[in-house]
Queue: 2 jobs
Job 1
Amino acid sequence: APSTKLIMFVQIGSRNQDAMEASFSLRFASRMKGVDIASAGRGDRDDERSRTALLRSQEEVRRLQDARKEDQEKLSKSQAAIRSLQAQVRARAPGRPSVS
């Protein structure tokens, strides 16, 4: 039987702001590693397994996309809070005591 191999390239950024997407990409690649692509076309039973694996992978992609969206929203809120605090610090008049 012929052997089928698939190579998946995952680009990972090294910057801190790339960490979340890198994590999602690595998890997806890890899950895809378990999919048996070589079984495609080997009969109804293997076709059903392939369809099931495809559906699981599609669901995983949707779940990761949703999680990424939630994390991006949290990050955006945190960045807005940081900008607000920075503006407050800049607005303080020199020589005024800081309030804790």
Note: The chain has a mean pLDDT of 80.
Job 2
Amino acid sequence: PSSPGQGLFYNPGNGGGEGTAKNAEWLAQLVNERHARNWKKIDRFVEAMKGLEERAVDVQHNSNVDGVIHGIDRVELADEDCYNGDQDKIDNSTGASQSKRASSGLPIPRSYDVVGDVAILNSLPEGDEDTQRKVGEWIMSRNKAMKICVARTNALSTAHRSPGASGLVQLAGPPRNPVITSHYEYGVKCVVDLQHTFFSPRMAPERLRLSQSVARGERVLVVFAGVGMEALLIAARTEAKEVLAIERNEVAAECLRRARRMLERNKTATCPGGGKGAVERLSIMEGDALDILPTLEKSSFDRIVAPRPKEGTLDGDQGKGDAGKDFLMAMLPLLKVKGELHWYDFAADHELPNCDRTRETVQSVCQSLGLEMEVIHVAKVGSIAKRQFRVCMDFRIMRGLNVEPSN
């Protein structure tokens, strides 16, 4: 049928006898009833869509949880593009959103993040407490799923690049302390303590890319796991044999353990065994990666995901640090021959697209370990400051000279 007014018709006069006519009549009635119900569902969906407010959103692929933490201050975060969907950075700077913002008469920020049911402003709005409360209420009115609105008061300068207990000010909504929420990505839920951990929904496309690269039967190691969204997605959406997550921040590790418990009840998990199977394959180790990695079996992992945190002024093209060589030295012996490592680094615009400094760093560590490597992919995956970018380099170990692969 091409419209709600049409249905399935039959002509009992075409032959076949009385039995055929009755069967045709029954079939037509059955199909037309379902046809009518489906059109009613479509009508309800159309009405619901008409009731939604339009909002303008920019989309950009991003990566690395901890990389964002270490390189972004309040101004830089506001200038960065974002991913939108279940995970938002709302941009109020264009089109209808800009006119509504202007007509409000309030200092509405150009953009803000949404994690779970929390809207997060990157700095306190101008004005007194009453004005700031009205700003929070205005933002919450834009999306009924937002239950509270908070603003950062520092530049994420703690050891774990989190705002800290006093680093968030609640502007609107029922009081919530600590500020903890649950956040969905692609049907998988994580738990986020916004005061003591870092999480960026703008990393969602990169996290999905990583999970889609995992093949059946792989053993996967996730270093710098944070609240564990990468590890959770890989466990729930792939046929990996085992996923091991390592995280130093005790609060983030506890968030990951809570999310792991909830994963067991997840009915959308596409891995073998569903949510229960994902929980069985996901393990968590809390502690410093440089202490834990040497204790793991050599040549035992098919894939390592390393969203390395930016070490402030020690990283980047002007950095004075070792560009993460210590971590590479500890991780590379764990890879099997033909195993792959997703390595995150930080580069200036003049270093793109080849990222020669990153390539040379990885190559020098491989040579010191007697390994041969092959670069699969190098790409810019996010902006951390003006003319400064986060990059991901995927490479494969082609031949191990000093490290014997396991069967």
Note: The mean pLDDT is 81.
